[in-house]
Structures are given as structure tokens and as C-alpha cells.
Amino acid sequence: MLGLAQNFRFAFRRLRKTPGFTITVILTLALGIGATTAIFSLVEGILLRPLPFSNPDRLVLLGDHLGAGPNTPVTAREIAIYANATSAFSSLGGYTDSSYELSGAATPEQVKAARMSAGLFPTLGVPPILGRVFTPQEEAGHQPFAVLSYSLWSTRYHRDPHVLGSAIELDRRPYTIIGVMPRSFEFPLQTGHLDQAQLWVPLALTPDELSDQNAGLWGYHMVARLKDGVTFSQAAQDADRVAQQIMRSFPASMSAIHIRGDVKPLPEYAVEDARPVLSTLFAAVFVVLLIACVNVAGLLLVRAIRGRREYAVRLALGARSSVIIREAVGEGLLLSTAGGVLGLAFAAATIRVALHLLPDSMPRVDAISIDGGVVIFALFLALATGALCSLAPAFAALRTNLTESLKDGVPTGSGAVSHAWLRSTLVISEIAVALMLLTVSGALLRSFQKMLAVDPGFRPEHVLVAGYHLPLKQYPTDISADQFNQAVIDRLSSKPGVVAAGVTNILPGSGMSGGAAYTIEGVPVASWKLQFAMFASTQGDYFRAMSIPLLEGRTFTANDRSNAPLVVIVNQSMARHSWPGQQAIGKRMHVGNPRKEYPWATVVGIVADTKLGSRDEPSADQWYYPAQQPATFNGTDMAAELTGPAGGYITLRSALPPEQMTNILRSTVAAIDPMLALEQIQPMNDVISNVEAPRRFNTDLITGFAAGALLLAIIGIYAVVAFSVSLRTQEIAIRMALGAPRIRIAQLVLLSGARMAVIGCALGVLGSLAISRLVSSFLFEVSATDPLVYLGAVLTMMLLALLASALPAARAASADPVDGLRSH
After folding, report:
1. Can you give the pLDDT at residue 309?
2. Which of 13, 111, 515, 751 has the lowest tally of Cβ within 10 angstroms?
């Protein structure tokens, strides 16, 4: 222990004598360790940290496989059937996302919520911190109870412990607060961090939701807890058995639909979308750390070579090799510990900023923090980095040639020549990994540019949108909702600067969608195949407000009301797929399969395809219907399948910037219904930007890593070339004294830098080709082996390598040969 302390004291004294070198190494390590720690905190918080439920590894998400398609949610009927018919689960519960106008005791606001069955809280195993949750008897009795989230309790009720028993109004109906959940409780998990549920109410399925007419509405979810000893495969078999039982209870109109049970671990489901992105980011930041370590190892190696006379004297006097190694490792550990502490502070600041920049689709953001596990990771990383970085200079010191190093005025610096290959190898490896990041960054940038060049099918400029939800108590019928919508449209249309106003229930470019099976006229029942198309209701001058081009036919008019013939407008993709080689105008379709005797609707128009989500997603078949016709469009019993809760999105196109129309929109709605809370009032460009945020975030972050790696690689090239020039001072002086032109001296120096760059680029290209399959899943209309990307990356690296070598070359070419000969 005493010897170890002496080694650290000796290392500290040496480092204190060279503050420039010490600060450079610490800052380099802090950058690498800090960036790695920041990304690790994301990975640990989102992927590695257990869900905030009791024994979360035993929780599963239950769903359906519909035909040959992907897994889907479940129907309302399945929740009760699974609860009674399964044997693999100790408990289960169902839920569905919802949204309510929250009023009472404060300003009305629109809040995200979830309707949850009473069995779901015990299944998750998280008790409230105040009060209780609702019971199965209360749910069956449709009791109006509400359980608050910690954030809503804090922001709206200021953590009042006496909030239990208070009355609130949800959609202007009284509810009683009976509980408050802990800060860590977040459910459902499939939404982004801006869409977390703020309260929970009983699921209390209605007779309409359980009716045959709604038997095909897959809009609910189930979570179950596996019994002790039951495996996932056994649970899947049990779920599949129940799915067969459910199919036998389908109404005759759904006989063509086949489902299979689907069981997925809840922790896996919660992070499945984020896992590929975070894994890629962690790999990228690890590369940056590797480059930083190589740079530090190179700097320590140069330091060891410069101190070769000192090492030679100590070895000649009998110093043991183990002592030299311990001192070198101690010096590396001191530097890396300081870099680790500084990097941890850098990571904490980075996380604070990143929480505001992360895309909304990133789950479990509240779990991200610099906790004990992250601190331990950072310190372990620092110690491992210091130990590894110091090994190369330690062994280089041991390989010192005693005879040459002890000579006074070694003329050629040949004692360091034996280490030239090691210095060059370090720099070449830096160039190779930097080029790999550069090619990935270039591919992502090209991919993002390709995505931005895609026509979304509408013009978002000068469009303002606002969401709203009409309380059922004040707007109990479709007619009352239509009257509100029309009043908003009429008043907005009369305002100065307004070009067009409309209402829809699905915003294009927002990631929202609503799909339904449909049947086209003339298809025999025997040959009908299950196919889905997205749908949306519109009212007012919606197509003009969004600038969706009309390709054929007409748009909806005021005459397309509930007592008029039913009409639809289809997009170009649906017209092409449903009526190939035919004129779609005048054709008829209806919702559901051929066995459902719903009224036919006539196609009166064809519009351009619009992207429902990000522009890199394929266009989907879509149709539109007038908001005034839902009650008769597919039969009164099925109207809820199309419309859902009354409400939607107001779309407003103006000649002015959309931000200037916000107050006009608010005041117009308030004049019609002062209690109605608008949500997400924002320009349409912001809606699109939010959906595209994940790709932009990934691109920006990888590009930042690539820039950092490139900078470190260039610094490494400069350091090695400059050091090589200092070792060859006498050789250069002799060449100049014998008549070598200065341009030739500069060429020799530049050639040494170019040689390392060429080898590094060649290895980097091979590495990029090796990881191309991993990168391709993140690209849009760009190949991971795009020659232009590779050529641009190689040219950039070669140019910067020559620039890094230019300054040492200029110094060598301008040196005085007399001074060079005198210095040795």
C-alpha cells in the first residue's frame, strides 16, 4: 500500500510539472468518458432499469395476431373472456387510452388519461401513495371515481394531502378523487413522455362496447401477470386456446376474421422501438471513447519517448521494470480519474439538456438520471481507460535502448524510431474508426435530406392546428357536435387573413391513424380478402385548408348531409389498388366485410396521397367521409367505430404566420364555448417536426459524434507528424545542407501524414462495409454502401489529414539548417 501511495505521489509531481499536457489529456478523457456516460444513462434508464412495477419480469402484454398481420390490441369482449378463461395468469386487466376535459377548482385543461379495469392495478402491483384504487364492484357499478398521477397532483393540487374525496369534472361530469399514484408510476407505457396519462378512471365497459356491432373494434389492451412456474411459451399456448374460443363467439359477420393469441413480455414491449436507436448511439459513443483513448495513449507514448533518457538512467541504476510499469499506470489512473470526475459533471449537464431535446417517442424519459449505477459505470470506465491508456507508454519505456539513450546528443533520435510503428498504428486506428462514424453520419444525413424532399401530399406552411374534445354531457349527439364544428368554421372563415378553415379527426403528418376493413362493390363474398384502409372525417373547407390537391371529381359540399346519398373521397393509392385500371369516380364501397349489410357510399373525388406519419413511411390507402354522415354511413350501431368521442382538430390556413393566429383561434372558440379547453395549438410545421424528431435526433447525435471523432483523429495526426518532425530535425537539416529544396522537405512531411491517412481510410472503408447491414435499417432511400457517401468521407478525411500535416510541414520547410545541425 505504501509503494502504491508513493507511485501516485511521484505521478502527481510529474504531471504538475507539465500543466499543458495534463490539461489536454484530462479534457480529452472528460469528453470521451462524459459522452459515454451520458449515453449510458439513457440506455440504463430506458433499457436496463426495471419497470416501476412489482416483479416486472412476470408481466406480459396480451394481444391478437389478426390473420397473417402483425400483433394488434384486443377487443372489449376479450378482456372479460380472458379474465375467466385463462389458466396461465394470476391476474390481468384491460385498459384503453382516453382524453378528458378536466375542470373544477381551476382553469379547464385537456389531459391524457386511461380507462383501466380494476384488476390492472393489482396486476401491476403498485399501491397508491394516497387513498386507494377502485374495486371490481365499483367498476361494475360504473362509479365515477378517479385516481390521479403524481404530476397532476403536484401541478394542479399542489400536493394537497386532503385532495381525497374532492370532486373534479371530467368532460363536465363529476368524478371523485380516491387516490394518488407514486411519482414513478407511469402507465400506459406505449406513449411518449409528453403523452403520459395524468389520471385513471374505471374502464366500466358499456353495453354498446360489448355489443356484436363493436365486436370487431380492436382498440383495447391487456396486461397480465404470469403464475409462478408458468413459462412464456405455456402462456402463449393458453392465450392461443382462448383466442380460438373467442373466435367461436364472433358474430356471423366476422366469420372471415381469424385471430391467434399473442403474448409479449411487457418490459420488451415498453422499449422495443427505442432499443435499436439507443444501441446504435451507444456503439457510436463507444467509438468516440475509443478514439479519445487512442489519442491519450499517443500523448502518453510521446511523453514516454521524450523521457527515454530518464528511463534509461533509472534502468541502468537498477530500477525494476515493475516499478516503471506501476508508475506509468499510476500516472494514467490519476489522469483518467480526473477526466472521469470532470466527465461525470459533463454527463450530468448533457443529460439535463438532452431531456429537453429527446423526441416525444422516447419512452421512460422520467427514469433517466445520474444515479449510483451510472456513477459506478463512469468511475469503472475511467479506471479501465487510465489503465489501458498507460500500458503502451509503460512498455515503450521498458523497450528503451540503454546504449543509445545514454549517449549525449543522440544525433538522429534513433532511440525513438523503434516506436514509430506504434505511434503510427494508434493514429491509423483513429482514422479508421473516425471514417466509420463519418460514413454512418453521411448516410444518415443523405437519408434525412431524402426524407425532407418527399412531398407529404399537403402544404403545412401557414397552417395552424388545435385539438379539442367535446364533452358528451354538453354535446350528446352528432348533430350538436356538427353544430359546434360548423360554428367554429363559419366564425374563423370570416376573420381577416383566414384563407380556409376545416375540422378533421385525423391530422396528416402527425402519426395518428384510424383503420377499418372495407368492401368494394362487385367483389364476391368467396373471393373477398381482409384489407384495411385509413379513414378520416372532414368538415368545412378542410382540403383547401391543408392544400391537399384534388386530382379528380369534387370535394365535399354543404349538401353532403345525413339525409343525402352517402359519399366518400379516396386517395390516389386506394383508387389504384381498389379499382386497378378503372375509373374510381362513381364506384361504391362500404365499411366491413361483405357479410355486413351496411349502406353503400359513392366515390365522388380522388385526392393526392398524404403522409399520415413521417415522410419516410409508405403512403397508405385512405378515404375521407363527411363528418355530417357518420350516423348513417355504416349503420347507426357502428357509428362509434368511425367517429369515436366527439372532437378532433381545427385546421386553419391564413395569409399571416400561424403564430399570429393563435389568439384569434382561442377567442373564436371561447366565444362559442368558454369552458372548452384547446390542446396542442401549434403550426402544422411543428406537428411534422415532432413526428420527424426521432430521425433528426439520431442524425444530429451521430453527426456530432462523427465531428468529435474527426477532430480527435486530426489532432492525433498533427501530434504524431509534429513529433516525428522534431525527432528528424538533424536529418532534415542535413538534407537541406546537401541541397534539398524546401518544397521537397514539405512533401516528405506531408507524405508521412498522407500515408497514415490512406491506410486508415482503407481500414475504415472495410469497417464501414462490415457494419453496413446494421446501419441500413435506419436509412431511407439511401444505401448503407452508397459510393458517394464513402467517396465524400474519404476525401474529407484525406483533406483534413493533409491540413493537419501542413503546419508541421511548413515548420520543417522553413527551419534554419544551421540551427538544426547545432541542436544535436
Report:
1. 57
2. 13
